[in-house]
Structures are given as C-alpha cells and as structure tokens.
Amino acid sequence: MSDDTLAPGVTPVPAPPPSTVKPVNCPNCGGTVDIRVAGTTVSVICGHCGSTLDATSPELQVIARADKALRTPEIPLGTRGVLRGKTWEVVGYQERTDEEVRWAEYLLFNPYEGYAFLVDDGRRFNLGLLLDKLPTSPWGLGLQADGLSFSRFGDPYPVRTTFVVGEFYWRVAVGETVKETDYVTPGTMLACEDAQGERTWTRLDMLDWGEAETAFGAPGRRREYSHPAPHERSPFKSQLFEAWVIGLIAAVTLFIVSGMAGSQQRIAGTTTDAILDGPEKTLVIKDVVLPPGRSRVEIDADASGLDNSWVDLDYSLTDQKTQDSIDSYGTAEFYSGSDSDGPWSEGDQRPSVSLSSIPGGTYDLIVTLSAHKWNGAGSSAPATDASLMGGHGFADGGWGGTGAGGVTVPVTVTVDRGGIFGGNIVLGLIVILIWPIIVLFRHLGFEKRRKAVLSSGDDDD
Fold first, then answer.
1. Nearest to 413 by CA among 311, 327, 301, 331
2. Positive or negative, the Cα torsion across 20, 132, 190, 85?
3. Which one of 69, 203, 345, 348 has the lowest number of neighbouring Cβ atoms within 10 Å?
4. Helix, strand, coil fractions of the chain, as percent rounded to 5
5. pLDDT grade, residue 295 (50/70/90)?
6. pLDDT tens-digit profile of 395-435?
7. In 257-351, at which residue ranges do the beta strands (DSSP E only) sit?
C-alpha cells in the first residue's frame, strides 16, 4: 500500500535502517562470522572455532587457530545499549589478567562516536574512551587530563589477554601482553598501556550501580564494598557530610532548647551560723513548692568565710503530705598553707547538690550542719580560737563574731528549681554524634581498602 492510500491522520511507519552486518564464512571451520564494523575492523575472532582471522583480507585469512571451544560473554556480541545518552553496540569481547585479578572488556562501537570500552571487574562497570590529547604533568606533580588531576596508583604491571571473541580494530590475540600504569582521581582512572613501542591512554569513568546492566540487559549486581576499585568514590563520603550537618544542627538545637528550658528560679533560702567544733545545728526551710510534674532541684551552700575548716551539710527534702524524703549531703571546705613548694590552697566553699526528677508538691528542707577546724601541718592558720580571732580579724566581723560555743561561720543555704544537668547535655551530644562517627569510620575503612594495593613508594593519592 502506498502512502497515498493511507487513511487520513495515519502516519506512515518508516522502514528500518538497513543492516550493517556483513556475514562471511570462517575459512577454518566454515561457520558464519558477522562483521559489524566493516572497513575499520582489523581482526575478528570466529565465534564457532575461536580462530583469529585477518579482517583486512577478502578471504578472512586465518591468523591463529584456537584449541578450545569458546564461551559466551555475559553481554552477547551484537547487543545494543544506551550509555550517557549514546547508543553503543558490542562488537568484541576479551578477558585480561594481571596474574592476580581478572576482568572483562567489551569493545563498543558507535558510527558517530567511534570505539569505546565497557570494562567489567566483576563488581562494577567502567566506560572507557581513548584520549584524543596526551595528559600533561604541570610542575612534575601527577597528571592532568580533561580538567581533572590524577595521581599515580601503584607501580606499572603486566596485563595479559587470556580470551578474545568478536572483532577489533587492532590485531588482538590470546597471550598478548602490555605494561599498564594507572592514575586515579575519585570516579575516574587513566590507564596507560605500553606495547611494542606504542603507548595508548584510556580514560575510564566508573558507571553508577545498575547503569550498564540496565543498558545492555545484564543481570544486576549486589552492592558491596569489601574490595573497592582504586578510583572508586567512597559511598560514605556524601553520607558523612550529611551526617555531620544533621549532627551539628541537632547539637545547636540541643543547646537552644537546653538554654530555654534550663532557666532556674530561686524558691527558698536562709542563712545561719555554724559553730566551729560546736554541736550540730538543724534548721528547717519550710514550704518549698514544686509545680506539678517533675522538676530539677538544686541546693546550694555558701560558706565563703571558711579558712582551714569545713562544714558538713546533710539535706533531707521531705514531702509535707506523704513524709517521703530524699536525702543528700554536701561539704563546704577551704584549706591553705605553705610548704617547700610555696603557698597552697584547696577546697570548695560553695558546694552544690542537684536532685533530678522531683515530683511536684510542697516540701520542707531539713538541713543539719556541723563545722570543724583543721589543724594541718604548715597551715597558715593557728590552731587556737584566740589566735584565729586575732589573725583573721573575727573581732572585726570577718566571720560574723563569736557565739557562746566559740567562733561561728555564716552559712547560706538556697533552693532553686529548674535548669538542666550538664551530664544530660553531654549524653545528648554523645547520642547525636554516634551516627556521624559510625559513618566516619566506615568512610575511613573504605579508603583504607581502596588504597590497599598501593606500593610502598606510591601512596600519595
């Protein structure tokens, strides 16, 4: 039917492009050999008998005969796929080894782009393109190509071809050996191959997981990072940045919330005199009111007049309704003196006691305190009451005078509610940092494995 006979509105279907495959017969086994890139193919390997044939000869002259049956590549010859927006056809396949690691290379062809390589290391695929300009080495430090900087990875090593099938633009053969030197930057490798006085440079870009498999219909690969390629990007690097940014935001939020919720309110307080080496003294701070819910309570003592003495303080916060009590204690102390190293001092004259999660209600705080003098060797304070009074000016009111039982020390006890525990902030920071630290160690472990094959003299990557 001609286009003139088509129904109105029906678009004619264009005819498929003519096939470029040229079938010929193998002179060794008689099998059909398809030449897909006629005119540029130099050698072709028969897929039936494995013979290497000279594609430049009209009769496909046999260059070398194979002694074993061929195996089928994972991606069959003739398969087409789209990579990075360009359509490629698989025309050749070879397997290579450096005597420790084996990998496969597919030769790809596009009539507008020329040749490319799809390199399969068993884990991931790389797309390789021949460089059209030689890399440069500014200042003799590494290499630069296509705007990227590369560092040499390891020493040069031999690479041997162990299996070939399909067609190639050079005379490839099993046993062919070249010397390769690798240069890497994250995501890309430069492979320099030296063979019989000729040097070629190939840029290998690592493809995303599943990109080549989807393009050519190959089975999917499981993601694993136990043996990364030398130019493989760390999958944890982006996670590391995200984890630290989120951790920083969480830490700042923690401090802001803590600051807003951590304000303290004074709800009670009193001042009394403790007699040095005198009897215990008990006082009661009544009607300590806590709001419904649970609150943090801080009890502070201030005995700033202490000198070579201490005050023991026992606290009992008692619920007026249930008579349940919460007990704690503190010690205000200060000592000073001199020895062969010179003057010294130590002690805390303002001890603080924190009680967490106290239920709401009305409480009485019962404080029992007792004060004691310290007669230490080398002390700057004499031991007797009379000398203490004269030496420190108690008669002038430094310690508030004397009581019936001797020298007294003023002690102020205050009760605050609210605020937060510093330990809770530290615990919160530790929890926030757990994930960033885990990602950091995973990233460092990946980088260690990636660089594991570096020679001792080439670890500058």
1. 301
2. negative
3. 69
4. 15, 45, 40
5. confident
6. 333 344 444 457 889 999 999 987 666 666 788 888 888 99
7. 264-275, 281-302, 309-319, 325-339, 342-346
- pLDDT band at residue 44 under the 50/70/90 scheme: confident
Residue 338 in contact with residue 344, Cβ under 8 Å?
yes
Residues 6+ apart with CB under 8 A from 382: 388, 391
Nearest Cα neighbor of 168 from 48, 66, 43 is 43
Residue 296 CB partners (closer than 8 Å, separation 6+): 354, 355, 356, 357, 358, 417, 418, 419, 420, 421
Position 282: which residue type? T
* pLDDT digit string, tens, across residues 6-37: 555 555 555 444 556 777 777 777 677 777 77
Reduced to 3 states (helix: H, G, I; strand: E, B; else coil), residue 408 is strand
- DSSP three-state, residue 109: strand
Could you tell me the two tokens for 167?
Answer: 């067609």
pLDDT single digits (tens) 156-179: 999 999 998 889 988 888 889 999
Q: How far apart are CA 28 and CA 50, in angstroms?
A: 9
Angle at which helix 237-261 crosses helix 422-450, to 10 degrees, equals 180
- Residue 51: CB partners within 8 Å, gap ≥ 6? 26, 28, 29, 45, 62, 63, 64, 65, 66
> Cα separation of 84 and 212, whole Å?
10
What lies within 8 Å, CB to CB, of 135 at 6+ separation is 143, 144, 145, 150, 183, 190, 201
Asked if residue 381 has pLDDT above 80, the reply is no
Q: Where are the domains of the chain?
A: 20-70, 72-233, 264-417
What fold characterizes domain 20-70?
Answer: Rubrerythrin, domain 2 (2.20.28)
Token code pair at residue 40 = 């540029």
For residues 193 and 179, the answer to whether their CB atoms sit within 8 Å is: yes
pLDDT surpassing 60 at residue 459: no
264 or 111, which is more confident: 111
Question: Residue-wise over 439-452: b if at least 16 C-beta within 10 A, else e?
Answer: bbebbeebeeebbe
Could you tell me which CATH class the domain 264-417 is placed in? mainly beta
> pLDDT tens-digit profile of 301-328?
999 989 899 999 999 999 999 999 999 9
- Over residues 201-256, the pLDDT tens digits come to 999 999 999 999 999 999 999 999 888 999 999 999 888 888 888 888 888 887 77
